[in-house]
Sequence to fold (200 residues):
Amino acid sequence: MMEPRRRVWGSWPEPGELERSVVTIGVFDGFHRGHVALVEAALAAGTRRGSPTVLLTFDPHPLAVLAPAQAPRQLLPVDDRVEHAFALGVDCVVVLPFTAELAEQSATDFVEQGLVGRMGVESLVVGSNFRCGRGGEGDVDHLRRAGRRHGFDVRVVDLVRRGERTCSSTEVRRALAAGDVHDAFDVLGRHDPRIAAAAG
Ligand SMILES: Cc1cc2nc3c(=O)[nH]c(=O)nc-3n(C[C@H](O)[C@H](O)[C@H](O)COP(=O)(O)O)c2cc1C
Ligand SMILES: Nc1ncnc2c1ncn2[C@@H]1O[C@H](COP(=O)(O)OP(=O)(O)OP(=O)(O)O)[C@@H](O)[C@H]1O
Fold:
């Protein structure tokens, strides 16, 4: 089968559309240094295995559904996140609509029905603080156990730091809110006028 390239799914791929993959998951708002490191680790695993590297992301931001009052201002629209992923060399992107129904799904079902059943995951690459599933129950230990049951490997990436702090979308937003665009760019690892505009 020809491996898919630059394909974007707006929901889980249908059975058979994606038979094997290296998957990295998260919101990826801003595409900061940590996100880039995660994608690079996934690409290295994809190349090693000869499997497509797929970035799985959510839209809207999970907090917009789980706690709308605390939902952060979006740094990059989902189309820009997809473009960043492709520019780095990711083969395909899955954008899952984050709905109340998805938030209620157990981590086990998310992994078995989604990652294994629809994506044929061979290797899962996440940051050490990643969680998925109802109530955030699916931490990296949970994912490793699921990986042993289903025969996929879990690669946990150490969080990228910049001096004293851990790079995160939250840190970028904090710097922007303080009016310090240079600091925001320092966490991001690049100058990005669209993100400066997100400061409003
Ligand atoms: C199936 C599923 C259910 C989730 N349910 C919850 C939840 O109940 N409470 C919560 O705070 N986050 C929940 N999340 C969101 C995750 O904790 C997390 O924010 C999301 O997977 C993105 O990961 P990231 O924040 O590391 O990018 C869920 C995620 C998934 C995939
Ligand atoms: N500094 C980092 N280094 C490496 N991986 C990271 C880093 N920060 C987040 N990740 C990973 O990137 C993926 C996407 O996470 P997410 O988009 O929630 O990042 P975040 O920047 O921590 O966001 P927020 O600040 O809004 O919680 C997850 O797998 C997460 O574990």
User: Anything to note?
Assistant: The chain has one domain: 7-158.
